[in-house]
Amino acid sequence: MLAILLGVGVGALMPVQTSINNRLRSSVGAPLLASFISFLIGTLSLLVVTWISSGSPIPNFATTAGEPWWIFTGGALGVVLLTGNILLFPRVGSVQTVILPISGQIIMGLLIDTFGLFNSPQTPLSAVRFLGAVAVMLGSLAVVGVVGGGRRREASSGQGPAIWLWRGLGIVMGMCSASQVAVNGRLGRALGSAVEAALISFAVGTSVLFVLLLVTRTRWRGLGAGPNPWWMWLGGVLGATIIFSMALLGPLIGTGVTVVVTLLGMMLASLLIDAMGLLGSPRRAVRLPQIVGLLVIIAGVALIRL
Question: What is the 3-state secondary structure (H, E, C) of 72-125?
Answer without folding.
Answer: HCHHHHHHHHHHHHHHHHHHHCHHHHHHHHHHHHHHHHHHHHHHCHHHCCCCCC
